[in-house]
Amino acid sequence: MSNTLSISREKIDNLNLDISLASSNVQLVKKVPVTDVNDVFCCLLLSNTAKKLYNSALYLFKEQYRKNQTILTYETLDKLMKNEQLYPKYARIYQDLPAKVSQQILKLFAQNIKSFFGSKQSKKLTDEQKKKVNLPKYYSKNGLIPVYYTNQAFSKRDFNNEKIIHLSGTDLKIKLDLDSFPESTHFSQINQVRIVPYTKNDKDKTLSDLLEEYYSGSSNKATPLFTIEIVYTVPVSEKRSNNKSLQLLYRTSIIHKINKKTNKIATIETEELVEARYTCEFLQSVAGIDQNLDHLAVGVVSPDGTTAFNYDIKYLKSVNQYWNKKKAKLQADISYQKQLLKELKEDDKLDFYQTVLTEYSVSRLISGVEILLKKLKNKLKRITTKRNHKIDNYTHQLSRKLINHLSELGVQNIIYGKNVNFKKEINLGRVTNQNFVNIPFNQIIERLRYKACLAGINFMTVEESYTSKTSFLDEEKLHSYKRNRPKKKYTFLGNRFARSLFRSKEGHVIHADINASFNIIRKVTGDIIYNFVDKGFIKGSSPKRWKISIQ
């Protein structure tokens, strides 16, 4: 048997292979509690100064808006705040902090102002809701707000020499924990350092009172006053294991194009995937995942042997069923109330209602219908938000537990069967279509993708056509669906005689979705996978079913 398996570029194009490599970054946050008395006092001063700067910017904005009806942008506000001749008091506060830190606070303020005017001009809000939207409020006298340091506001030299983040203009030095930050961590990977107050403090207490209370023992030291959050970016490549089982070969092409405006020749250099090679290591540690309405079927070929299991996703279907039922009823009620309100406001209908009711009663009826309509719309928004939160929570838990499970089995490569336009072309009946389409398979894929990358696992998607109909045990030839070509009718050796059962040509009955998951692996690796898979396990066992307990 050959050590490598080569796949031509033509075959890769037919497979519609989407290989997720280490081209993306993952942003993480490391929290460090502040316990030293000097550091806490320094954080108090910084946070209080930042609060004063924010309040000063708000006062200046209100004055300019009241007098001249002008909206100060961030650039204008930054120039005015550091102008010592016009505003010496504001300039001193501005200079008490490093310039980059002061600019971050002003940017935060400008964003709040932008949100305020955006809400005022929003078409989604009613006039009554817009009246409730107010300008940002002043922070209290002894209030504390977060302070933001970019990597331009701390020493690069200290970081490179000693792996210490030394905040500019302060004595605060943060030693990086090598368990969280590898020695290869570059200065540019540290995006931001935030000083965040933990608690809401009493307005009547001064800064010295807070500090004295905290370290005298009267305050709960289990909850520090401040925590320092280090926001850093980790390339996915650094989180991957040194797995060289997946080899990609590229070909560089040079294209010459003529610019029509300047008549100059532009040279463009491009790279295209020529060949993908999978070593024996890849084939011995691979998992195929087949998606359907009830569960994710997973077939695994690992050094420890062949394994198969299901992850139940019926919870997603039940959430969607409940939501669809409630939504349909509310939409019907909203439609009825809208029609009634339209009739009440029409002249020809108004005469009819006034013959039955007084003019005062009609106006009260209109007002009541408007209030009811608003309540129904708000209720529809609430149940939709609740449904989205449930699905979001479940997909996070599902992806985490599945990746952890595959990591324990030693899987280094995941192949996910995906059909790009299956939701548009699905024809399973009105009710089934409604429930199936609302399941966020793309959300599941993306969360599996980035969590697999963090665990050092290669993740790829492949077109999954005919994997459920083709017999894996019989080594039947796999077919691919091509959208732009007329659909062909194929004859298959096996048959799917029940929802979850598949009978091969030789009469062996196996789980249909597990058959599909192994065929998904075969879509990428070819028939060489049969040298590593245990057919006897597939014939003689049913997959274990895993359920996610909602927390």
| Fraction of residues in β-strands | 15-25%
Strand order of the largest sheet: 2-15-14-11-12-13-18
- Total count of helical runs of at least 4 residues: 18
Query: Would you identify the regions where 5 or more consecutive residues have pLDDT less than 50?
Result: 1-13, 19-24, 236-244
Largest sheet: 7 strands, mixed
Shape designation: extended
> How confident is the prediction overall: mean pLDDT?
77
Tell me the radius of gyration: 32 Å
Instruction: Domain count, please report it.
Output: 2
- Terminal CA distance reads 48 Å
List how many beta strands DSSP finds: 18
Walkthrough of the structure:
- With 551 residues, the chain is α+β, with helices and mostly antiparallel strands.
- The protein has two domains: 26-238, no CATH class; 282-546, no CATH class.
- Helices cover 45% and strands 21% of the residues.
- The chain is built from 18 helices and 18 strands.
- A seven-stranded mixed beta sheet has the order 2-15-14-11-12-13-18, sandwiched between helices.
- Helix 2 (37-68) packs antiparallel against helix 4 and helix 11 packs antiparallel against helix 13 (359-408).
What is this entry, summarized?
The protein has 551 residues and is an alpha+beta fold. It contains 18 helices and 18 strands. It has two domains: 26-238, no CATH class; 282-546, no CATH class.
Please specify the SSE layout and strand pairing.
Blueprint: E1 4-7, H1 9-15, E2 18-20, E3 25-33, H2 37-68, H3 74-81, H4 88-96, H5 99-120, H6 127-132, E4 147-150, H7 156-162, E5 164-166, E6 173-175, E7 190-197, H8 207-216, E8 226-235, H9 236-239, E9 246-258, E10 265-279, H10 280-283, E11 286-291, E12 295-302, E13 305-312, H11 314-345, H12 347-356, H13 359-408, E14 413-418, H14 422-425, H15 430-437, H16 441-454, E15 458-463, E16 501-503, E17 509-511, H17 512-525, H18 535-540, E18 544-546
